[in-house]
Amino acid sequence: MQRALAKAVQRSRHDQHCLAIAPFFVVRSAHTEPKRVRLLHPALSDAQRATIYALSTPPGKAGVAVVRVSGPNAIDVWSKLVKTRKRQLPEPWKMERCQVVHPETGEILDDGLAVFFKAPRSFTTEDVVELHIHSGRAIISSVLAALSRLPYCRPAEAGEFTRRAFHGGRLDLTQVEGLKDLVDAETEGQRRLALRAAGVGEIYACRRVDYESHKNIKGATRVQFEQLRTEIIGCLAKLEALIDFGEGEDIEEGVYEEARDRAFKLKSTIQSYLQDSRRGEILRSGVRLTIFGAPNAGKSSLLNFFAQREAAIVTPVPGTTRDILELSLDIGGIPVIVSDTAGLRKTVDPVELIGVERARKAIDAADIALCVVSCEDLDRGDGEDCPVEFPEAVRALIGDDTFILFNKSDLLTTKRDKSNLAGPHRWTTSLKTGDGTTEFLASFAKALQKKWELLQTSFTLSIDIPRNLRYALSDNGDSGSTPFITHARHRVHLKSAVQFIDGFLATSPDDIVLGAEELRYAARAVGKVSGLIDVEDVLDALFKDFCIGK
Ligand SMILES: Nc1nc2c(ncn2[C@@H]2O[C@H](COP(=O)(O)OP(=O)(O)OP(=O)(O)O)[C@@H](O)[C@H]2O)c(=O)[nH]1
Ligand SMILES: [K+]
Ligand SMILES: [Mg+2]
């Protein structure tokens, strides 16, 4: 056992050297499990470690403004600026009534509240002081000016509090992205997606996040990526054991085959993640909806209906819309970028010709194409069962996934009643009388939600999820249906992970060292998503899975 440990540790050092990405310390004590303290970049310089301060709420008149101070001297900031009745050191995490005073003159600047977050249980993992003062320009600038008098304090740069949270291991990259997306979110769908990635709330309240033991993780994206990486490392650990000890001695037989098997499953899991029609990325940036159709079908009327204002020009003249008109809207909580386009028809007018060309391009670029067809333009077949004949101009552009709105139902002749036009992703309205518009909007929003957010995923995890992680996932309620990949960056790394796993699967069992190298790169690729890479995991998995040198 001793020999095995020594060897494995030696190998870990080698791995650490090879990866040379993330320096890390392993803190061990007699009674506790080894804890990893991850440092993702070289240690912060003195300037970077300075105590920083900033106004964390928007400037201007309001009830409350929050000035945040973070860094090693935060406690000193408290003693110089915060005057409470007890006039002693703060009780951590407890809001206290106080006066904020000037550190040199003692002048009272404002009356408010203050709270001290003791490291590492703070957002930045450093000591943090928050001053909750009245929000007024003069008050805020006097407090910021007072802070600037302290020699160890400097104003924070953009995003610097979050950067420190990342350096401190409080957030990984997916959570940093999630946090930014959360602040930027404009629709319900975006908010939920971002919240899931950010995992804020619980995370602030808990100590340094430890994947193995922590049940409070809400950064579900982080958990999912971590799960993938753990699985790759599990395969790698098996290969490492074979390299170190060789089959037949202390290791059971068939280990190599098992690793291959697991790697194969893992590859198809990642591939199924990649085949998500870019739902997460699209939901984040907005679904591109292109409205198209023959002239005068009511396309611009539809855009105005969506926007609830006269955004586009509507006239009885066919060919009114020339250029593309784009609006960002919230439809059922989904961010949608709606484009109104020129009516499609053969034309010799050079301006209209360009408009038609642009319309075709917009249809190609759309995530959803919505064709507006005027009931007037439908081929007036006699029988009630006559199949719908679309106008010639749009016929070729209508595919299985095209949404269709039959408009101008007020002009429908009795021969072709509405039921003849019904079908999935087909609606009938009169934008003039308002008939059917409420039903259309509700059903259309539902279709969007189904397609972009609440759609059941077509894949399931083929790998075993440890119980604690399963908790974190199921606790979120929607892990099976919420998009997994939300940034193009995630996709790039997952694709390269698949390539490396393929590389491993293609190596022969005689080249086991090469194969292990491929897996190590695969783990590293997935680790890049979260920005957390360490090789100590290999050792953990090794000792968990094998009974070496019994
Ligand atoms: N009767 C009736 N008229 C409608 C309806 N919806 C729109 N219209 C009218 O149809 C005409 C054309 O509407 P638009 O919204 O400009 O049609 P469009 O498809 O944008 O037309 P182009 O931009 O020229 O291609 C306008 O006079 C509208 O008032 C409807 O449901 N019923
Ligand atoms: K028109
Ligand atoms: Mg128009």
Hetero groups in this structure are:
guanosine-5'-triphosphate, potassium ion, magnesium ion
Distance between the termini: 7 Å
Number of strands: 15
What would CATH call the class of the largest domain?
Mainly Alpha
Helix content: 40-55%
Strand content: 15-25%
CA-atom Rg in angstroms:
30 Å
Alpha-beta content class: alpha/beta
Number of H- or I-type helical stretches? 19
CATH fold label of the largest domain: Four Helix Bundle (Hemerythrin (Met), subunit A)
Q: pLDDT below 50 for ≥5 consecutive residues: which ranges? A: 1-6, 12-42, 201-217, 454-481, 545-550
Q: What is the second-level CATH architecture of the largest domain?
A: Up-down Bundle
Average pLDDT number: 79
State the CATH superfamily name of the largest domain: tRNA modification GTPase MnmE domain 2
> How many separate structural domains?
3
Q: What features would you highlight for this structure?
A:
seven-stranded mixed beta sheet; flat; 550 residues; disordered N terminus; Gyrase A, domain 2; binds potassium ion; 42% helix; Rossmann fold; GTP-binding; alpha/beta; 19 helices; disordered C terminus; binds magnesium ion; binds guanosine-5'-triphosphate; 3 domains; Four Helix Bundle (Hemerythrin (Met), subunit A)
Layout of secondary structure:
Blueprint: H1 2-19, E1 24-27, E2 35-38, H2 46-49, E3 51-55, E4 62-70, H3 74-81, E5 82-83, E6 96-101, E7 108-117, E8 128-135, H4 137-148, E9 153-155, H5 160-167, H6 173-184, H7 188-198, H8 202-205, H9 220-245, H10 255-274, H11 279-285, E10 287-293, H12 299-307, E11 325-331, E12 334-340, H13 350-365, E13 368-374, H14 392-395, E14 403-407, E15 426-428, H15 437-452, H16 467-475, H17 488-506, H18 512-530, H19 536-545
Parallel strand pairs: 3-9, 10-12, 10-13, 13-14, 14-15
Antiparallel strand pairs: 1-2, 3-4, 4-8, 5-6, 6-7, 7-8, 11-12
Helix pairs in contact: 6-7, 9-10, 9-18, 9-19, 10-17, 17-18
Bound molecules: guanosine-5'-triphosphate, potassium ion (K) and magnesium ion.
